[in-house]
Structures are given as structure tokens and as C-alpha cells.
């Protein structure tokens, strides 16, 4: 069976976005090959619970392993007929990169080089990979446009994501490998990452623990609901790489195009949970940025889709899931 079926290969399939994308593709009838090393950067049981849902589908094949393992990747590309690769596996998190830089070099640089090599050798139809809004650093111009200069990253995480874009460009240029990089802006929603603000803030308000608000709460984020991200990626897979680019390399922002002030975001949480937050105001953290705001005109035109979900609806869905998952009445 494996020889005949075409597979979409998703790295980081037990992660937040990887899980939702795998689920969507399986629902649409695709065969999905997923890889994840289930690292302990955050609660592994959350990853296993996501996987358990995916493994109910006959068309899903899971490999527990690491993208740093080139031999393993090569064997998978030989064994399965892979036409699209969606590369989402990475060491995530801006703050953690201050504490554990080597994890980022291994996963985000060595791992990505391995993916590029395999895609090149197997002449993959399209490689879509996750970059990050963090590449914009302290960009003063808003909204952030993919044409802006992004050569002053303020965290190692951001530097590795910028490096991914440069590596992809080289492979597109040298080997005509079609690549699409996605600068993702603060993705949130059910089954989200426990290290993200939606999760930590919700948890703190419910438990009545203080919220650390950096830059004294004067922050804005372009919060993007998970379903909008998945719809965008799905449409990019279906449409394929735009023909007119030489080399076949492109970068898009995936954001909501509506930055939300942190104070308003907390109010939405308080209204949903029915409890006031205890706020602890702190100065700006190293590696952090005061505002993110995505210019999404290019991708909106290409896939004929704009994010639909406003922060109130999105957060209400997230909190419903959070309460159910953690048995909070």
C-alpha cells in the first residue's frame, strides 16, 4: 500500500499546529505520514493525547523519531511516496532560547538542513515550512511586510528561523526546489502550547496566581486562531507553489491583521472565566518585542482567504476546551 499511496509528510505532527493540520488533511481523505520526537519542552501527555486522536485514522502513519536523524529521514523518503512536506518540527519559544541555545541549533538548523536534503534528493513537489513573526525583531514599520529587512533578530530562536528562510532560498535557487515559508503570528486555540500566553494566562487567572506582564503590559500581539492558520496552509497545499517565481521561493505572513492590546486580551479572558486577573507589572524581557502586526495582502490574494475569527470567539473556544481537557468546572 505504501508504494502506491501518495503521502503528505508532516514533521512535528504531535505539536499544536502539526496535530490540527494532520487532522484536517485526514478528514479531507489524504494519507499523512507524521514524525515527532515527543520532546519534553512541554507536557508530553498533551502530545500523546493529540496523537491518540490522529491514530484513530487508518490513513495516518506515525514515526517516533527526530529530524536530526538524517538516516531515519532518508529511509522514510525511500519507503513512502512523499509529494508534499509540511515542516513544522522545531525547538519553539523565544524565552527558552536564552536558556538552552543548543536545542535550537540542533532542531532548527541541523534538522532543517536534513529536511532540505531529503526534499532535494526525492524531488518533492512542494516544501512548506514554518518560519516565525519573531524574525521581524524590533521592526518599527507596521504592519510587518515580507519585503521588510529582517537581519536584526533579537533572539536566537528568531535567528534560526531567519536562517531557515535563507537555507530554503539556496535550495530553491540551486535545485529548483519549490519552497514556501510561513511567518506565523501568535497562533492560539484548543490543544495549544502550554508555554504560550493564552495557556499561561488562563491557568493563572483560574488558579488566582499573579500574571507577569512584561513591558508593564504595553504589548500588542497579532493573535491568529488555529482554524484560520490551518485553512491557510490547506489552501497553500491544494494550490501548490505559484508558478511565476524563479527561483521557486516565497514567504508569506500568516496573521490575523488585527493586533490586540494585552490589556484587552486579559479582559477577554476575565470575561470568559468570570474572574479578575492578579497583575504583576514587569520591565521588558530580553528577546521580546512590543508589537506584532502582519501584512497579509499577498497570501490573501493568492489563496483567496483571510482569517475570520475574532479574539472573543477564539478565546471562548479555547477556554471551553481548556476547562474540558483539565476537568475544570
Question: Which SSEs are present, and which pair or pack?
Answer:
Blueprint: E1 6-11, H1 16-27, E2 31-36, H2 44-54, E3 60-64, H3 70-79, E4 81-87, H4 96-99, H5 101-121, E5 126-132, H6 156-175, E6 179-184, E7 187-188, H7 197-207, E8 210-213, E9 220-221, E10 224-225, H8 226-239, E11 249-254, E12 260-261, H9 262-273, E13 278-281, H10 297-303, H11 311-325
Tell me what the structure shows.
The protein has 329 residues and is α/β, with parallel strands linked by helices. The chain folds into two domains: 6-188 and 223-254, NAD(P)-binding Rossmann-like Domain (Rossmann fold), CATH 3.40.50.720; 197-221 and 258-292 and 309-325, UDP-galactose 4-epimerase, domain 1 (Alpha-Beta Complex). The protein is 42% helix and 18% strand. The chain contains eleven helices and 13 strands. The chain has helices at 16-27, 44-54, 70-79, 96-99, 101-121, 156-175, 197-207, 226-239, 262-273, 297-303, 311-325, and strands at residues 6-11, 31-36, 60-64, 81-87, 126-132, 179-184, 187-188, 210-213, 220-221, 224-225, 249-254, 260-261, 278-281. The strands form four sheets. The chain has a seven-stranded parallel β-sheet with strand order 3-2-1-4-5-6-11, sandwiched between helices. Helix 1 (16-27) links the parallel strand 1 and strand 2 (31-36). The protein is globular. The termini are far apart. 44% of the residues are buried. The model has no long low-confidence stretch (mean pLDDT 95).
Amino acid at each position: 500500500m505504501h508504494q502506491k499511496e501518495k503521502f503528505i509528510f508532516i514533521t512535528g505532527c504531535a505539536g499544536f499546529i502539526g496535530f490540527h493540520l494532520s487532522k484536517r488533511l485526514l478528514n479531507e481523505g489524504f494519507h499523512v505520514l507524521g514524525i515527532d520526537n515527543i520532546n519534553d519542552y512541554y507536557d508530553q501527555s498533551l502530545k500523546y493525547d493529540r496523537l491518540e486522536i490522529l491514530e484513530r485514522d487508518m490513513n495516518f502513519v506515525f514515526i517516533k523519531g527526530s529530524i536530526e536523524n538524517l538516516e531515519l529521514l532518508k529511509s522514510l523518503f525511500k519507503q513512502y511516496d512523499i509529494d508534499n512536506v509540511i515542516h513544522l518540527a522545531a525547538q519553539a519559544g523565544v524565552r527558552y532560547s536564552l536558556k538552552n541555545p543548543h536545542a535550537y541549533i540542533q532542531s532548527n538548523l541541523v534538522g532543517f538542513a536534513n529536511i532540505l536534503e531529503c526534499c532535494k534528493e526525492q524531488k518533492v513537489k512542494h516544501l512548506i515550512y514554518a518560519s516565525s513573526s519573531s524574525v521581524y525583531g524590533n521592526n518599527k514599520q507596521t504592519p510587518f511586510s515580507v519585503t521588510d529587512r529582517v537581519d536584526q533578530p533579537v533572539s536566537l530562536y528568531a535567528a534560526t528561523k531567519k536562517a531557515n528562510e535563507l537555507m530554503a532560498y539556496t535550495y530553491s535557487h540551486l535545485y529548483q526546489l519549490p519552497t514556501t515559508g510561513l511567518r506565523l503570528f501568535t497562533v492560539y486555540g484548543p490543544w495549544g502550547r502550554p508555554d504560550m500566553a493564552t495557556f499561561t494566562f488562563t491557568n493563572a487567572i483560574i488558579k488566582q496566581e499573579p500574571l507577569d506582564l512584561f513591558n508593564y503590559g504595553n504589548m500588542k500581539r497579532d493573535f491568529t486562531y488555529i482554524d484560520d492558520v490551518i485553512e491557510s496552509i490547506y489552501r497553500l497545499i491544494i494550490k501548490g507553489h505559484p508558478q511565476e517565481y524563479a527561483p521557486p521561493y516565497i514567504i508569506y505572513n500568516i496573521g490575523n491583521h488585527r493586533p490586540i492590546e494585552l490589556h484587552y486580551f486579559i479582559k477577554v479572558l476575565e470575561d470568559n472565566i468570570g474572574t479578575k486577573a492578579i497583575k504583576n507589572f514587569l520591565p521588558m524581557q530580553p528577546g521580546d518585542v512590543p508589537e506584532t502586526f502582519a501584512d497579509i495582502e499577498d497570501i490573501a490574494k493568492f489563496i483567496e482567504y483571510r482569517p475570520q475569527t475574532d479574539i472573543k470567539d477564539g478565546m471562548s473556544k479555547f477556554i471551553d476546551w481548556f476547562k474540558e481537557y483539565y476537568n475544570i468546572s
